[in-house]
Amino acid sequence: MSIMIDLQPSAGPALVVGGGAVALRKVRNLAEGEFRVTVIAPDILDEAALLPFVSVVRRAFEDSDIAAAPPWSLVFACTSEREVNRRVGELARARNIPVVVTDRQAESTFFTPATIRDGDLAIAVSTGGASPGVAKLIRERIVSALGPGWGTVARLARQEREGRLAARRDRDE
């Protein structure tokens, strides 16, 4: 059993080890959430380097990368090399850093849900790592059923809530 959380960028930066298509999907998701991201791999797709909040280091992963400052809030092992992914997962788990090892579900301590964002609204579906494809399909069906405009509703609800909280604080003072 697991829980889903909505982690904020203030939790700290993320490390993505790997530079291919799988890594790029993780980097895009993190950058969309405004996380600072460092990508380490000898070969990194150019698109990753162009994303906001992303720094790239074009070299092989080194064990010391896990202990690098600032401390990582999340680590993703996304290479095509089993031994590198295994080592990244092992080092992250030893430091109690949440880690996704994309080629071995059992070595991961969390999974990233299939997410769609519209402003303040985020809809996420998870199969606990069992089938990212099924999670994506379900997410798309939910989005289709809801239709557009819910991000605006969420933004307006936030403004209304903030107004109520400010009024309550004023009354209490």
Question: Secondary-structure blueprint of this entry?
Answer:
Layout: E1 14-17, H1 21-32, E2 37-40, H2 46-50, E3 54-57, E4 74-77, H3 82-94, E5 99-101, E6 114-118, E7 121-125, H4 132-146, H5 150-172
Parallel strand pairs: 1-2, 1-4, 2-3, 4-5
Antiparallel strand pairs: 6-7
Structure summarized in a few sentences:
This protein is an alpha/beta fold and 173 residues long. 39% of the residues lie in helices and 17% in strands.
Can you give a write-up of this model?
This protein has 173 residues and is α/β, with parallel strands linked by helices. Helix content is 39%, strand content 17%. It has five helices and seven strands. The protein has helices at residues 21-32, 46-50, 82-94, 132-146, 150-172; strands spanning 14-17, 37-40, 54-57, 74-77, 99-101, 114-118, 121-125. A five-stranded parallel β-sheet has the order 3-2-1-4-5, with helices on both faces. Strands 6-7 form a two-stranded antiparallel ribbon. The termini are far apart. 24% of the residues are buried.
